[in-house]
Amino acid sequence: MALEQAEANLASAQAAASQANVNVPIASISSSTSISTTSSDVQGSQAAVAQAQKQVEAAQARVTQARANATKSDLDVERYKPLVEKDVISKQQFDAAVAQAAANRAAVLETESTLIGQQDAVRQAQQRTVQARSQALEATKNGPSQVKAQQAKAQAALADVKQAQARVDQAKLNLGYTKITAPVSGIVNKKNVQVGANLSVGQDVLTIVPLTDLWVTANFKETQLEKMKPGQDVTIKVDALGGRKFHGKVRQIGGATGSRLSLFPPENATGNYVKVVQRIPVRIDFTNLAEENKDIALRPGFSVTPIVSVK
Predict the structure, then answer these.
(1) Beta carbons of 60 and 109 less than 8 angstroms apart
(2) Domains in the chain, please, with CATH?
(3) What is the pTM of this model?
């Protein structure tokens, strides 16, 4: 509704600018060309009729918007009634909804009254078109001052057009904000929103588990890393898929053992030292996941058996 109203206001401003620009040559015509002056003045009056009709369209758009707002607020009141009876929402919040509904209904009456006024303006503009021929000759007597004044009006009308265009662009931008696009594709794992709920900036709506950008974190023993290095080929067997094989490469060998990176690293500086074989995290990237995982069978968290070709 906001976009439609902004577009209607833009059309009204464009019509006003057209009328103002048409009236500029009217003011500059001398008395020796009274026939041309009359013709241009008639065109200006016709442009005024077009502008009034555009304003009627804008008023109709505002009436439509006001009616929609009133309907929504009335529905909100109906939805809030059982909630306030059960103390789900506060009485203050319910009273605010009732007040908003009353205000929206009053806005409907106001916009309908404005629409009637705009329709009267159309009829008046049509009457002025009939009188334009007799008034045109008298208007040209003031000469240069009228030209300057009309040029100023034309410039102001063009500025109004730019402002209306800016409001249309803002309305389109706001409309784009109503569509939320997920940053990645995947499976919705946790949904925190329901249809009809109001969202806040930064609110968590849902959790998406990506199924395309996957990798393996293999915790090899430190005794297995002697000949291992980045770039080596890896065969990956997935336990959950019956040992199904995938292919990858060693991307990076971790900079510290898993125990060293734990919340409470072990401290072996005691007399009873026991040597324990440590494990190092190794990242392995899939090399042909799009072809080997066409059925999207892999899931984050699966247990796998990686076999690295160290030769």
Answers:
(1) no
(2) 2-177 (no CATH), 211-308 (2.40.30.170)
(3) 0.44
